[in-house]
Amino acid sequence: AQSVSQHNHHVILSEAASLELGCNYSYGGTVNLFWYVQYPGQHLQLLLKYFSGDPLVKGIKGFEAEFIKSKFSFNLRKPSVQWSDTAEYFCAAEGGGYQKVTFGTGTKLQVIP
Amino acid sequence: NAGVTQTPKFQVLKTGQSMTLQCAQDMNHNSMYWYRQDPGMGLRLIYYSASEGTTDKGEVPNGYNVSRLNKREFSLRLESAAPSQTSVYFCASSGRGAMNTEAFFGQGTRLTVV
Question: What single-letter DSSP state applies at residue B63?
Fold first, then answer.
């Protein structure tokens, strides 16, 4: 069965620090990958997505993610975080013929001013 | 284009009461989902439906039933609410095809069972 793992549960950074959140998925075949963000009190919103092509994907608000097929990974990065990036981040995957989006357990990011 | 609409936004139930959470999407998506979100637990899939007329259990289906009456609507029913079902519930939908599989979420329902 497909699964998505996020190994960092809670990350605390100072403003201007660089961010990298890990995500690994477990199933083979063609896979579509996503990162979602959930700001406090809100619903999940799409940050960026990878379907094919350039494995380095750029999303909104300066976020990017790199798809590394050999490592089954899709890590989220941002060179310099801001206080407003405080949120919970979810990695998700769809593919392998399952036609179902599967989410990781999320990473809470706290950015300290 | 409203996306995914779920109602109600807030609900308080007494233990043993029943209620139905409604969800509708206007994006012609095939797949629809119900999740619950609890502190420290991330998103947990309750049920999902890959197409009209089909439903499958997720990781936490006990105490819930669902109904996919048509392509647009996917409802979640609590037959006899328990305090353990206090949570935030999210409905989501996703399409098919190489470029159409991202999930869109509703605004959430905060349910408290007392």
Answer: T
